[in-house]
Amino acid sequence: MSAPPAIPNLQIEPQRLWDSLMETAKIGATSKGGIKRLTLSDEDKRVRDWFRDACEALGCTIGIDEVGNMFATRAGRLDLPPICIGSHLDTQPSGGKFDGVLGVLAGLEVLRTLHAGDYQTNAPIMLVNWTNEEGSRFSPAMLASGVFAGVFTSEYAFTREDREGRRFGDELDRIGYRGGEKAGAREIGAMFELHIEQGPILEAEGKMIGVVTGVQGIRWFEVTVTGQDAHTGATPMRLRKNALLGAARIVEAVDAIALAHAPNAVGTVGLLENRPNSRNVVPGEVFFCVDFRHPDDAVLERMETDFRAALLRILEPLKLAFEEKRIWNSPAVKFAPELIECVEAGARKCGYASRRMVSGAGHDAAYIARIAPTTMVFVPCAGGLSHNELESTSFEECGAGAQVLLEAVLEYDKRFADEPNRAADGRRRH
Ligand code: HGY
Ligand code: MN
Ligand code: MN
Q1: Are residues 313 and 337 located together in one domain of the fold?
Q2: Contact 105, 135 (CB under 8 A)
Q3: Is the entire prediction scored with pTM above 0.90?
Q4: What confidence score (pLDDT) does residue 420 get?
Q5: Based on CB atoms within 10 Å of each CB, which residue in 74, 218, 302, 392 is the most buried?
């Protein structure tokens, strides 16, 4: 069996990557320069079609699983479990051009570079677009990578509803992306995900590359506070059951709980629906979601206890009833040391300053780490701003991230050079 050729000096083409970023940013473009491409929306279908065509143009084989995860595979010299790259193409309602998209399109650039250089890796390379990473339209986040990793059932995913009552499964059918593959049936040998940092650290330290060692723990709660609709003019203050007053005090309490567990805790109420939301009606019902995060699950547990105590302490004196449910618990994750070292080697080879860090944001890699060695590569974003239409990562930073992703993958792939091919007859299988 011939050993693979020495790795040529493969260089990604930053302009080609940037052009793809700007071309796909037109799909769901907002007037403020961001993207609105909610999971399983018409815009999501259009970018999925674009992605599939771009991968097929490289001769990749395309697979789609039952929750819409898309897999584009470039055959390797050997029939081994693939090295996986990629991220997500769905965005927040007022998202930026780079969150998730950079990871998918930089992965496409890696495939384009291998193709142009006619270089065959030992293991196959599989580029993935994970469905519903954001969790904005259908909660929780990272839903489809979670199904793939066995965290959620596909049935659970299909029944998730958006705030208009539309179901995930129905929307998947509507855009024609419910694939025939069982989610999770497909092998993954390892995963490298490139993503913007979405925080201020790399920019503040003047580092180009974040070598991500793990993802912090995340817990989401849904709360409905119930009071009584009443006339704002004729109802004395002492007789009111004002659900919005109670909810407002809980919003304050969530902030206080995060501050009480400084410096690493964060707590947010980002979604709130006030009903009937009329100028002259005392609100009788409020629905809201709480997002708590911390690198240490034990601290998250204490924050959850404090949160439940706050609900009772605040709402009962206001004569308000409430229902509360934890709808998501994504424990803190540690990534694979072997892959972390490949990223560091890649950054060194490219001459970029790097630093190890834990991700504040959740990512599909957090769930894939449960079933395969996984890590992430970060690049800066201006002001650390993300989930904002002004999100900005430079041409140079995008190119640097893609080159380090390529180098990390090639560094990891080297170890399979002498691997026996599983295909007994020596034929390459896609
Ligand atoms: O919530 C998150 O951290 C990710 O953006 N879905
Ligand atoms: Mn993301
Ligand atoms: Mn995001």
Answers
A1: no
A2: no
A3: yes
A4: 73
A5: 218
